[in-house]
Every structure is written in C-alpha cells, then in structure tokens.
Amino acid sequence: MKQKMQAKDFITVGVFTAIMLVVSMAVAMLGFIPIFIPLLSVLVPLISGIPFMLFATKSQKFGMVTLLGILIGLVMGMMGHGIFAFIAGPLCGLVADLIMKSGEYKSMEKVALACGVFFLTIIGNYIPIILAREAYHAQLVETGYGKEYADALMKLVPDWSLIPLAIAAFTFGIIGAYIGKAMLKKHFKRAGIV
C-alpha cells in the first residue's frame, strides 16, 4: 500500500464529499420542522454512516478522512452554520483518521469508532444555538423562520443539550457504520476490513 495520497485519492475524497453532503442535506431538510432539529443528531449519522462506510473501504491512506472532514466543515461553514462547523469538520476528520490508522484501516471496530467520531462534526451546528441563544433566536426571526419557529427550536434544544446531542451523534454514527457494513459486505471483503 502506497502511503502518499495520489490524484485518484483526491478524486475519491471529492466524490464522497459530494455524496455525503447531498445525503446529509436531504436528511437535514427535515429541520424545517423544529422537532427534527435535535433528531438530526440521530438521523444524519445513521443514514450518512452508509456512504461514510463505503468511503472507508476506499480510504486506506492517512489524510483522506481528514480531508473529507475539512471539506465538509468548509462547505457547512460557508452555508451559514458558523465558525464551529469550520472547526468541528477538520478536528473530527483528523481524529477519525487517526483512529482508522491505528487499526491500519482494516479493523472494523476502529472504522466504526471513527465513524462515530466523524459524525461529532454535526455538533458544530448546535454550538451557536447553545452558546449564543439570543443572537441565534434573533437571526432566525430576521431571516424569515419566524418567532414561532425560533421559540420552538429554543425549547427543543435547551442550553444543557450539547452533551446528549454529542452522545447521540457518536452512538448513531457507530450504528450507521454497522448498518453500512451489513449493506456493503462485498466492498468490505474486498477492502479486507474485518
């Protein structure tokens, strides 16, 4: 296995960044209904865990998962999710990459753990709701969501909810990993991930 990333690896990262963003955004559309905002910490990792696991079968070099996290954080930040998305994406991507590397990209337990860590990226979207509640509420009202939506969101994502949301994202990222493995058995066998 060559250790340096090559052009095809960068293409793979780009393709899977697009796939994961499309899947995540499709799921996130449920967020137009306030009750689904906290549930996104369950649904996004659960469903996006499947393409992440397909990506895991193709990312056998250090840096690929990190780059995926950087790109997702960058896109999420530019879409208005704030500075914490810029930080969470690269940080979670790097930690996930280190975990996968520790298992030489062949250990299913390490890949599943990395999947859980990777999806902690979603917490970057919740931090502004927790840390800047009044400003976030005002921004929602000003951008057309309305006071009713903003009030409902503040009730559904209380100021103590960051840790439970993180635990949900991590746990359902791991569950999503095992669902992905079950759906993609042939790819895992070919990649030698056991």
Fold and architecture overview:
- The chain is mainly alpha-helical.
- Helices cover 78% and strands 0% of the residues.
- It contains ten helices and no strands.
- α7 (133-142) packs antiparallel against α8.
- It is elongated and about 50 Å long.
- The model has no long low-confidence stretch (mean pLDDT 93).
Write a short abstract of this structure.
With 194 residues, the protein is mainly alpha-helical.
SSE diagram, text form:
Blueprint: H1 7-28, H2 36-58, H3 64-81, H4 83-102, H5 108-118, H6 123-131, H7 133-142, H8 147-156, H9 162-183, H10 185-191
Helix pairs in contact: 1-2, 1-3, 2-5, 2-9, 3-4, 4-5, 4-6, 5-9, 6-9, 7-8
| Cα radius of gyration in angstroms | 17 Å
> What structural class do you assign from the helix and strand content?
mainly alpha
The number of distinct β-strands equals 0
Give the end-to-end Cα distance, rounded to a whole number of Å: 17 Å
Q: Element order, helices and strands?
A: HHHHHHHHHH
Shape: elongated
Q: What percentage of residues falls in helices of 4 or more residues?
A: over 70%
Poorly predicted ranges:
none
Mean pLDDT: 93
Describe the sheet with the most strands.
none
Number of helices: 10
What proportion strand?
under 5%
Write a concise keyword list for the protein shown above:
194 residues; elongated; mainly alpha
